[in-house]
Amino acid sequence: MTSRWRTVWATGESDERIVRLGMAGPDVVVSADHGGAIEARWAGDGSPVAAPTYTGITGILALAAWRHGESVRVATGAGSRHVSHRWLQRWDLVARKEIPPAIDMNVMGVKHVDPAIVHGEQVLVVVSQGVLGIRRTDDGSVIDEVTKHRSTSRVVIGSTGRGPVAVTSSHAEHPQLFWLEDLTEAVRLPHAEGEFIAAMEGDRLVCGSYAEPWNAWQTTWAGDLSGRRLGPPVTGEVITAVAVAAWPAVYIARADRTVSLVDLESGRELAPALRLPKRARSLVVVDGRDVIAGFGLEVARFEPPAWKDEA
C-alpha cells in the first residue's frame, strides 16, 4: 500500500487559468480556460484528443461535455450582470468549430448547462429564467420543460433508483428535485431553509449553507434526499470545488491550495491532503477513485493513497 499521492499526468499548456472541467464519457476530460479555449484529453494519459478549440468566449460559466461517435462535443454558457452573453452554444472539439445554431436564451448570462441521459438519449439540462428545460444535443431544441423557482444558484445532475434527476438550489427557496423522465413531477426537498446541494451520488448529497457567503463557503456535510444529516460538518478554508469519489469519499478543494479526500459520513480524512501550486477551481473523478483537477494554467490527474484498503 502507498501512503503518497501519485501524479498520473499533468499538462500546463493553457495560456489562461482553467475555469471548468467536464467528462465526456468515462475516458475523456474536457477543460475550458478563462480565455475561451476548450480542449479534450484522454483521461488515461492526458494526451490530447485534438488541438484546442478557440471559442473567443471569455469567462465560460457552464460546460457540458459528451461523446458523439468519434467526436467530443460540448455546450457552453457564459455572461454576467456586467458583460452580457445571451447564447447557449455547442462545439465539436474534433472538427474545432461551433455547431449552429447558437440559441438566444434572452438573458444576461447562461450559467447552468449540464449533460444527462434521459430515456436513453444524451440531452442537455438547461436552467434559465425560472425554467428547467431538456434540450436535444444536435440542434438545441426543447424536448420538455417545467417552471421552477426563478432564482437558481446551483444545479446538480444525478441518478437515483427511479432514474435521472436534477436538483436545483436557490438562496430564497428550498432545494427542488426534478425527475428528468417526468418533468411534471417536482419535489421540494425537506432540507432546512438556506441549505444548498453541491454534489450527489444516488440519494446521498454533499450539502452546504447559504449562511456562508458564496465566495466564502467553508463548511460541508453529508445528507440524503429525505433531509437527514448523515455525518458531522466538515469545515476549513474556503471551498473552491467538490466531487464525489465513491460514497462516502468526497474530494474537497480549498482556497489554501489543498485537495482533501474525506469520508463525509464520519468526517475523517482518508489521506494526507494533496497540496497544489494554485487553488483548484474544478474537479472531476475518474473510475470512482482518481481526481482530475484544474488549477492555475494546469490540468492534472492524481491517484490518491490506497484509502479503500486502509479504511
From TrEMBL:
Q: Which domain of life is it from?
A: Bacteria
Q: What is this protein called?
A: Uncharacterized protein
Recall the taxonomic lineage recorded for the source organism. Bacteria, Bacillati, Actinomycetota, Actinomycetes, Micromonosporales
